């Protein structure tokens, strides 16, 4: 166990992806744990590494006292001075023993404890590394499909990319490289589970941040994102610098910036929406390029009825209702849209009902007078 110990520790550190100092600490604690069981749980045991001899030394420590009450941890002044006449009360005596004193069974126990502790430390190391990267884009190699997930090799660990978190129509095979957003890191008895997604709004946010320097530098701020993965997305942005065109900056020269993102998202259309603290302007921006005739806003209910010209209804609603749904999700309000003709008919129906009501009331009053 102690042959070329330093080299063994270096190899374990490299294999497990752990700092060498951490592996040394785990090894020493493992030896201490076995030594206490074999030498006595009440004894003061300490293990140190002798670099010159390249071996671990087990030390049993006792305190010099006038009267011994705990033989496992104390030694009388009289007995101590038999070892060295210069000992005084309160000082420590260190008895050194080599790991060979543990025997073959003890060495095997150390190995088992070491393996277990290394696994635990490796689990903690992976969790701590990836939890700090939550929300970032990671890249890995598809290794296999397992149940309803793709298993992605990130280098130090494997991650799960659920089929539900793939953009509709996407297909990956073993060996393909894939980018995704790290959305969660979960630690359980089986280890650390890293969860990825390509449909998360955060994925689009980080792609924009990587392609648009103004977003990365904080000049342009992303105020919200709503996605229908693979179909359409709306991104609300605002800019602190009035001399910069935020939409133009995100699109890039000849669309170079936005096209890189669109290609990564399998041709998902991206609408860039100018955020505005005025809710009416914000709604109009979110539904562009549809023209809006008028808006009826209920701030208490956070809802709005939008009236558009008849020829603009399809644009405002969007394919399978995607435009109005995404605008509603982006703003956080309940939005409904009507064409002018339908709104006019509704108004006429309401007026007709009111007219009929008043007519009936007048007739009733007339009959009562008679």
Write structural notes for this entry.
With 370 residues, the protein is an alpha/beta fold. It has 4 domains: 5-130, NusA, N-terminal domain (N Utilization Substance Protein A, Chain:P, domain 4, 2-Layer Sandwich), CATH 3.30.1480.10; 133-197, Nucleic acid-binding proteins (OB fold (Dihydrolipoamide Acetyltransferase, E2P)), CATH 2.40.50.140; 200-275, GMP Synthetase, Chain A, domain 3, CATH 3.30.300.20; 277-370, GMP Synthetase, Chain A, domain 3 (2-Layer Sandwich). The protein is 41% helix and 29% strand. It is built from 12 helices and 15 strands. The chain has helices at 5-16, 20-39, 77-83, 103-131, 201-211, 213-216, 246-251, 256-264, 279-287, 313-317, 322-331, 340-369, and strands at 44-50, 55-65, 74-76, 92-97, 137-146, 149-153, 158-162, 177-188, 191-197, 220-228, 232-239, 269-274, 294-298, 303-308, 334-339. The strands form 4 sheets. It has a 5-stranded mixed beta barrel with strand order 5-6-7-9-8. Strands 1, 2, 3 and 4 form a 4-stranded mixed beta sheet that branches. Helix 1 (5-16) crosses helix 2 (20-39) and helix 5 (201-211) packs antiparallel against helix 8. The longest helix has 30 residues, at 340-369. The radius of gyration is 36 Å and the shape is elongated. It starts with a helix and ends with a helix. The model is unreliable at 350-355 (pLDDT under 50).
């Amino acid at each position: 166990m102690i042959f070329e110990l330093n080299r063994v520790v270096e190899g374990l550190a490299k294999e497990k992806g752990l700092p060498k100092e951490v592996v040394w600490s785990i090894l020493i604690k493992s030896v201490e744990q076995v030594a206490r069981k074999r030498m006595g749980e009440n004894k003061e045991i300490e293990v140190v590494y002798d670099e010159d001899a390249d071996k671990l030394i087990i030390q049993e420590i006792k305190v010099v006292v006038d009267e011994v009450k705990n033989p496992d941890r104390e030694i009388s002044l009289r007995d101590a001075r038999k070892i060295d006449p210069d000992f005084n009360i309160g000082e420590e005596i260190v008895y050194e023993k080599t790991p060979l004193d543990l025997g073959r069974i003890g060495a095997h126990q150390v190995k088992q404890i070491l393996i277990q502790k290394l696994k635990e430390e490796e689990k903690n190391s992976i969790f701590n590394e990836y939890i700090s990267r939550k929300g970032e884009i990671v890249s890995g190699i598809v290794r296999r499909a397992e149940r309803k997930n793709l298993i992605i090799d990130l280098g130090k660990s494997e991650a799960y990319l659920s089929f539900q978190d793939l953009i509709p129509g996407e297909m990956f095979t073993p060996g393909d490289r894939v980018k995704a957003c790290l959305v969660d890191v979960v630690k359980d008895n089986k280890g650390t589970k890293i969860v990825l997604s390509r449909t998360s709004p955060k994925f689009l946010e980080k792609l924009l941040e990587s392609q648009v320097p103004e977003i990365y530098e904080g000049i342009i701020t992303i105020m919200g994102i709503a996605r229908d993965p693979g179909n359409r997305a709306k991104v609300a942005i605002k800019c602190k610098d009035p001399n910069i065109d935020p939409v133009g900056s995100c699109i890039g020269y000849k669309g170079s910036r936005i096209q890189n993102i669109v290609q990564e998202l399998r041709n998902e259309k991206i609408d860039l929406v100018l955020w505005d603290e005025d809710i009416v302007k914000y709604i109009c921006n979110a539904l562009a390029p549809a023209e809006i005739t008028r808006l009826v806003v209920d701030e208490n209910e956070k809802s709005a009825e939008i009236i558009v010209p008849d020829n603009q209804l399809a644009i405002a609603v969007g394919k399978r209702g995607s435009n109005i749904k995404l605008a509603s999700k982006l703003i956080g309000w309940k939005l409904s849209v009507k064409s002018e003709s339908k709104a006019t008919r509704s108004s006429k129906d309401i007026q007709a009902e009111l007219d009929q009501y008043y007519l009936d009331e007048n007739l009733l009053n007339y009959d009562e007078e008679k």
